[in-house]
Write a structure and sequence with these properties.
The chain is an alpha/beta fold. The chain has two domains: about 1-215, Rossmann fold (3-Layer(aba) Sandwich), CATH 3.40.50; about 225-325, NAD(P)-binding Rossmann-like Domain (Rossmann fold, 3-Layer(aba) Sandwich). The protein has helices spanning about 1-5, 20-30, 45-50, 60-70, 105-115, 135-150, 190-200, 215-245, 250-255, 280-290, 295-325, and strands at about 10-15, 35-40, 75, 85-90, 120-125, 160-165, 185-190, 210. Strands 3-2-1-4-5-6-7-8 form an eight-stranded mixed beta sheet, with helices on both faces. The longest helix is centred in the C-terminal third of the chain and has 32 residues, at about 215-245. It is globular, with a radius of gyration of 23 Å. The mean pLDDT is about 95.
């Protein structure tokens, strides 16, 4: 039944969390012809969205407003609408605690709501970046426990009575070349049947999908992608520090190295890491690795180097001011190029 609804685009889709991931996803699903309900706990955000006003730069008001006006998209703070939905995508934040361990409170809160209203033939997909095993070890037990409390006869099972998968968000804010629908979608279900249902859903509005063997594999894919960037940024930041000591121009060196057509990918130094993903995700991987008695030294070292870059920049500024016989305290600084990234 769920496959038929998806393929005919009569399924009622839902998205929990309408931030920089959930809002573009909701618009993409609705633009493909599905009726979509978006859920968020922020009442101010919901009121703006009801007026067709987007607070995400990658979603233009001209794209959102017609879908709101036609009621192709509806938004609410009321989680009870989950009982009416055929598909649910969870797109909530996954930050770090102060001790740099995973903060799962937002996933927990969302899954608790989903579990309360879970029904047969419903597809649940987690998109929030997280450690390998979250979908199987954290989300699935919550769903099955609550679902079977309400079961009158036989035990309800994932892959038969409801479907659960992980499909990591791959949004790069500000990228006008690669966006939601033309970036390949990684999909890994808890069972093969779950993968099939999730892949069928995403194929309705994503140009290319790529299925993997499990939800744990899909979770690891996303962490590899962002850890790869973190480690390489850490490497080039360290090279920049070395070049500074040697009085060499690191930018010239990187540009020259980039002329090699194979075996090299240019990364550029900066004043540290920002955003929701790159400074955070490697810690999810190193934390999970510790559960397997493995110390991810290389990953943690890259994070340490990246974390020291703001201090390095301040020291450079202070030194430059001292040469002009000006103290850092009280000086007026102009910062050019304040952006999400290069």
């Amino acid at each position: 039944m769920i496959l038929e609804k998806i393929e005919t685009r009569t399924a009622h889709a839902g998205v929990i969390g309408l931030g920089y991931v959930g809002l573009p996803l909701m618009v993409a699903i609705a633009s493909a012809g599905f009726r979509v309900t978006g859920i968020d706990i922020c009442t101010q955000k919901i009121e703006r969205l009801k007026q067709g006003i987007s607070d995400v730069p990658d979603v233009a008001n001209t794209a959102l407003a017609p879908l709101i006006t036609s009621r192709q998209i509806q938004v609410t703070t009321d989680f009870s609408v989950l009982q009416e939905l055929d598909t649910v995508n969870i797109c909530v934040p996954t930050p770090l605690r102060e001790n740099r361990t995973p903060d799962m409170q937002f996933i927990l809160a969302a899954v608790e709501q989903v579990a309360q209203y879970l029904h047969s033939e419903q597809l649940i997909v987690l998109e929030s970046t997280t450690y390998p095993g979250t979908t199987e070890e954290f989300v699935l037990p919550m769903l099955t426990t609550h679902f079977n409390k309400n079961a009158s006869t036989q035990t309800r099972e994932v892959g038969r009575d409801f479907y659960l998968a992980f499909s990591p968000e791959r949004i790069e804010p500000g990228n006008s070349t690669y966006y939601m629908t033309n970036t390949p979608k990684i999909i890994g279900g808890v069972t093969q049947c779950c993968t099939q249902v999730a892949q069928t859903f995403y194929a309705q509005f994503i140009n290319k999908t790529h299925t993997v063997s499990s939800s744990r594999t899909a979770e690891m894919v996303k962490l590899l992608e962002n850890t790869f960037r973190s480690v390489n940024i850490g490497l080039i930041n360290e090279v920049a520090l070395i070049c500074d000591r040697m009085d060499l121009d690191v930018w010239e060196i990187v540009d020259a190295a980039a002329t090699k057509p194979f075996g090299f990918m240019p990364f550029y130094p900066g004043p540290g890491l920002g955003g929701h993903c790159i400074p955070v995700d490697p810690h999810y991987l190193s934390w999970k690795a510790q559960k397997y008695q493995y110390h991810a030294r290389f990953i943690e070292l890259a994070s340490e180097i990246n974390s020291e870059m703001p201090k390095y920049v301040v020291e450079k500024i202070s030194h430059a001011l001292n040469l002009q016989r000006k103290p850092l305290n009280g000086s007026k600084l102009l910062i050019l190029g304040v952006a999400y990234k290069k």
